[in-house]
Amino acid sequence: MKTLTKFALAWAVILIAAASAVAQNFLEDPKYGSTPDERKTNVGKLNFLSDAITARNWPLASVYIRDLMNDAPAASQALYQYGATTYKNLAARATSLAQKKVYVDSVMLIYDRRVENFGNNQATPALQLKARDYAALNPMDRENVRKFYKEAVDASGAAIKSGFVLEYFQQLVTDYKGKTITAEDLLAAYEELSPLMENAPAGDKDSFTGLFATSGAADCGVLEELYTKELAAKPGDVEVLGKAYSLMSMAGCETDFYISVAEQYYAAEPSSDVAIRLAMMFEQREEFGKALQYLNEMIENENDPVAKSNLYVRMAASELGQKRYSGAAQAARQAIALNPDNGYAHMFLALHRRIVEL
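Now predict its structure.
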């Protein structure tokens, strides 16, 4: 029994010494206050704040938060986490719009002070939490919702997570549909945010593109009006042509303006994707000569036998559209030489034989 008592006493001495050391650290750390007495008081208030949060006593918690933000703003990040929680709960219980505005403004101030004292490099950056909270607390103030989301995106730059970019763009689409921003505004935002989505998961990239495609701003008439102005100001500008081609392709445009953009873009930066798009559109318009022009260029630059075989099949169709049956047969034979299993090529040859027999 005496041995156990001595053991317990020894542990008590160790715990008291440890507590004294921790207390001494607080008393010497300037982030808790300017003097030992202030530090002791502020450490006590941090503990009382934690108790008030646990008890969900939001009015009492707000008193400690106000005092600590004034007297020991760099004491702990928990102060600002508790602060946002406290004032969001007070806002939810506000009895008037004026009172709610005071509480919402307090939430925003708390995030600003958190960034001022601890930066914006948390796992979920403070400015992103600020934007989300403002959108939830005051969703009708569309101008500031956009402002806070943009500030958060700009602050994180390339490190921004794709999910937050999606949130921001969803807010912008909502505003476009609500007629608080223009198609030009939404288009500019889409172009600005697109580079941030380049390395995003496939699902997020598809959602981002889908939001724009279904927004209504991607309408061919709207895009044509926008890019007619831009190309008038910057004739032949490759970057403008590329953006116009990409967005109008996504919108499924097939207008004369779109074809003109595609041809100019292809002339500046030839690619198989643009060439096949042009060939298909000219085939649909029964302008087979132009379709063959782009198909020939693609065939010259294509090295994959299967892909090249399929291009010869398209050429056979264009030749057939011009009633040049021997040319269609020749293209079909070249397709089969590259890929004997190309069923469409065999079909064109059979069709040619039938025409000859007739």
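The two ends are 117 Å apart (CA to CA).
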